Amino acid sequence: MSELASESASSGGGMSELRDLELAHAVRGLCDEWAYWRELATAEAMEKHTSQIEAITSLLGAALAEVPELADPFERVLDLHHVWDFFRAKLLLRQVEPLRRILDVADELAWAVYHRAVDGRLKEPPLVFLDRGAVPFAAARGVSYRDLLPRGVRTRSGVEAVRGLPVPVIGMPWFLTGHLPGVLLVAHEAGHHVEDDCGLTAELPGALAGLDPAAVARWEPWLGEAFADVVASVACGAAYRQVLAGAIGAGDGAGAADYPPPAARIELCHGATEDQGDGEAARVGRALATFAYAGLGGRSLRDVLTHPDVARAPSGAAGLLRGLGSGLTDVRAVLSAAALAFLTGPAGYDTFKVGPRAVDEVLALRPRGPRHRDGGGDATRARDVAAVGALMRALSEPDPAVS
What 3-state DSSP class applies to 76? Predict the structure, then answer.
């Protein structure tokens, strides 16, 4: 026992009472911080994250509400602090001015791809965060994110809290904060969230029904990644394909078994946007882009994601390289134009400060107000109730520490 604790105990405050107060302070710290973030979400700077902050704090708050009833509550509170830190760090970076603009742009790109497909059925859009990896990645709504925490969790309630992400997330490499063209790869990760949140996984094999059985068997292991490439290609046009080609060439081969061979990926992207080309990969890309998905309301990716300004990205790139505006009105088109400007005129890209000016254009296109539309309806409410219920069951069952 420390001298301070010994003096407190001998002066009438027992260790049990001190521990209770320490627990109350730890709980109050979480509650005060969540109240702060909810208030901050009403300000313009963070309004785009309103539904994400509400989903995260509501889920963890429901777990916290039951903590005082547990036999050993302190370990659970420590875990909830640890789990909350996963989200806190991602939100806090949006208060760091040099990082805020690029994160806002990446969020806007993910939203531009995502919301056109999900059409308001789920209320929280993907949250982009900065990650130490070399390439972007996606973690789906509802999946465990225990492995994404810097240290493990030790209690049953902590494990339950990280069993299901309350919002979908996209990890973006830190180096892309200074290289806007690479941010276009976020569109691929948004494609994974379109597949997950629209329930399209079971439909993907059906999109290949017109191909010969050998081709179908070859592509089925790659369908998830192929679909994400097709989403990004339809959403962002030829610029995505060209940025992807550079990224594949510079990659380390990690996770290569999940992807088609590099040349096939590029051909796949070409087929997604063009009706020409008879190679197998091009036909797969075209099939995935034009298939009528029940999860998209009987529409194809081309129906949902095509925007006329994307086809005008080359002229937008030319304008940017002359020190002018892109003249484009869609976020995906502006970012595609910036990427093409870099690829076709790298010296002019820096001379005319294309990156910062394109960021300005993207941010000027953002409408005011939160991103979600209708709160998600009955399906979203049922999902939230189920998530809170899982936490409640975990918190009501005393359990030894989890290794």
Answer: helix
